[in-house]
Write a structure and sequence with these properties.
It is built from nine helices and nine strands. By secondary structure, the protein is of the alpha/beta class. The chain has one domain: UDP-N-acetylmuramoyl-L-alanine:D-glutamate ligase (3-Layer(aba) Sandwich). Helix 5 crosses helix 6. The chain starts with a strand and ends with a helix. It binds adenosine-5'-diphosphate and the ligand Cc1ncc(COP(=O)(O)OP(=O)(O)O)c(N)n1. Its EC number is 2.7.1.49, 2.7.4.7.
């Protein structure tokens, strides 16, 4: 059995965070495990409260897993504070974690800060050098590189800059581009664009979480990075195409088990 760990925040409405990650791992035929960093009171209309867990319980969750189970890949999502980032960094280094995918979650689509602004420096310093793959959206790439990004050319330049900060492979996601949803991968000094038409739906809650978890699941299976990103792009395209209205706001992506059954990927 392929085993994948998510270190992230809980989303009470199940569309993003830990819940989206575990659904993705299952849909892709892997066994999912979780370390919770924070609990959010969240629904399809917004995030109403956030409670961080303390460093001890985060460290102990990570230790409990690594001392007992061989972990094939790790996805990191909402990390909330600099103190939590330091704890995660120390614990993953100590346990020699492999295939780490960092989704540098900063702000929810509804506009709530999921990373304290003063923790951005720690995310860059501690987590980027651990990342086999980092998956910033346009806003996150702008914050990390301190530049404005609106074009594919600017996405490529940002990917190179983020690689120089220590992340081995960089995917700048184009979900918020005008026009098609094109993601830019910078890997081993080469660029590759993963394009898809934009699915015309308002229901995109959890797209970033799902995409990064799908990359982690494929890395865990032994896929090279480029293939893992290609598969994740295919999976998220289908998950958005099958998204559905839930509640009164932005509905979630749908984790369709047929994908794995039909493709065995
Ligand atoms: N409407 C859409 N149609 C097709 N793909 C999309 C759409 N919105 C986002 N994506 C894809 O979903 C993934 C997550 O991107 P994005 O929404 O930018 O992340 P985030 O949730 O971190 O803001 C990317 O692969 C992006 O290209
Ligand atoms: C607990 C938690 N983690 C991450 C997010 C952000 O998820 P994302 O996939 O970027 O999608 P949106 O929520 O922004 O639609 C979250 N909301 N909650």
């Amino acid at each position: 059995m392929i085993k994948v760990l998510t270190i992230a925040g809980s989303d009470s409405c199940g569309g993003a965070g830990i819940q989206a990650d575990l659904k993705t791992f299952s849909a892709l035929g892997t066994y999912g495990m979780s370390v919770i960093t924070a609990v959010t009171a969240q629904n399809t209309r917004g995030v109403f409260n956030v409670r961080e867990l303390d460093q001890e319980i985060i460290r102990d969750q990570i230790s409990a897993i690594f001392e007992d189970i061989q972990v094939d890949a790790v996805k990191i999502g909402m990390v909330s504070s600099a103190a939590i980032i330091e704890t995660i960094g120390e614990s993953l280094l100590k346990n020699k974690a492999q295939n780490i995918v960092v989704d540098p979650v900063m702000v929810s689509k509804s506009g709530c800060a999921l990373l304290q602004p003063e923790a951005r420096e720690a995310l860059i310093r501690v987590l980027l050098p651990l990342a086999e793959v980092v998956t910033p959206n346009l806003f996150e790439a702008e914050v990390i590189t301190e530049t404005k990004i609106a074009t594919l050319d600017e996405m490529e330049k940002a990917a190179v800059a983020i690689n120089k900060l220590g992340a081995k492979n960089v995917v700048v996601k184009g979900g918020h581009l005008k026009g098609d949803a094109i993601d830019v991968l910078y890997s081993e000094k080469a660029f590759r664009h993963f394009g898809s038409g934009r699915v015309a739906t308002p229901h995109t809650h959890g797209t970033g979480c799902t995409f990064s978890s799908a990359i982690a699941a494929s890395l865990a299976k032994g896929c090279p990075v480029e293939e893992a990103v290609a598969r994740a792009k295919e999976y998220i395209g289908g998950a958005i195409a099958h998204s559905f209205p839930l509640g009164r706001g932005v509905g979630p992506t749908h984790h369709f088990y047929q994908y794995y059954r039909d493709t065995n990927r």
